[in-house]
Design goal:
By secondary structure, the protein is of the alpha/beta class. A six-stranded mixed β-sheet has the order 2-1-3-8-7-4, sandwiched between helices. The protein has a two-stranded antiparallel sheet with strand order 5-6. Strand 7 and strand 8 form a beta hairpin. The longest helix has 21 residues.
Length: 228
Amino acid sequence: MTVNQKNILEWAQKITKDIYLEFKKYDWEYGIKVFYTPVTQDNPPLVLISYQPGGDRGYYEREDKNNFEAGNFLPPEKNVYCIVENAMSRHIRALFQCAPNFLDQMVAFPLIFFRAPDVKTWKREMGDRRKYVENFCFEKVKEILNRLKPKKIVILGIDTYLLMVRKSILMDVKDEKEILGVKNNRRLAITSMIGKQKIFAMLHPTGARISKEDRDAIQREFCKWIQN
């Protein structure tokens, strides 16, 4: 392991521990998720950002609870999307089938680290604490992006992208384009830039109302984008 790899791994553990200690302040049964992938280098080719980890407390118990409670905050040794069989993982693997090498090099994490079965549960059960918790998460995502400085950013969910812009997590965005326009009152995909950093935001792949036609169109545009 090089000095840089050691430094980035220590940083990844620290930020995971910081998020865990914040989580422990709350009676939140669903747990947290920080990184879905190894974190081994600065300036990774790609960062993948989702909105919030889904699942009930069983997911947390199986994946991270024991390690975190034992003081082990190492990120996963392998990309979770490559080894877990669920709808989200299958969609991610399908999305990257035109550029599978990115699966081995990406860093993936959510915008909000606190798990919730769905957004309604998150808003209802977190209640008045939600704004503070979300702002805490947003600041940590800023920290992650500022440290990693990825070459490309993929954002799952158009609303997630717009929220990141609104909260100045993504700053000085330019050249924003609706590359697939609006369909059924929904934007399918948006590209933009921050300096030389390329951004691709897309309708969330597990959305219940995505047709095969729309999914294929997003896939084609994504493949063009990631290979340039």
